[in-house]
Amino acid sequence: MVIPDFEQTYMTRHDIHVRSALYVSIDTKRKVLDVVKKIGSEYMTATSYVENIVRQHLELYKDDINRIYKQKSTQNLI
Predict the structure, then answer these.
(1) Which of 13, 40, 64, 76 has the smallest number of Cβ neighbours within 10 A?
(2) Would the CA dihedral through 39, 43, 47, 50 be positive or negative?
(3) What is the pLDDT of residues 48-58, one digit of tens each?
(4) Is the Cβ–Cβ distance between 32 and 49 less than 8 Å?
C-alpha cells in the first residue's frame, strides 16, 4: 500500500457550502484542532481536514465496504 503525502492529501482546504453535522469526542476534536492550528495554513479548517480524512478512508476501503455490504445486499454501497 502506498502512503499518500500527508500535506497534499489531508491539509487541502475545501469550500463546503452544504454541511451536515457529525460528532466526535471532545478529545478527538481537540487533537484535530491542534493539527490544523499547528501545521495547517491560515485558511485551513478543521472541517476540511476531517473531510479529507473521511474521503481518503472511504476511497481506501471502498472495496471492503462494498464487499461487506454485498454480503447483506446485491448492490454496491459506494
Answers:
(1) 64
(2) negative
(3) 999 999 999 99
(4) yes
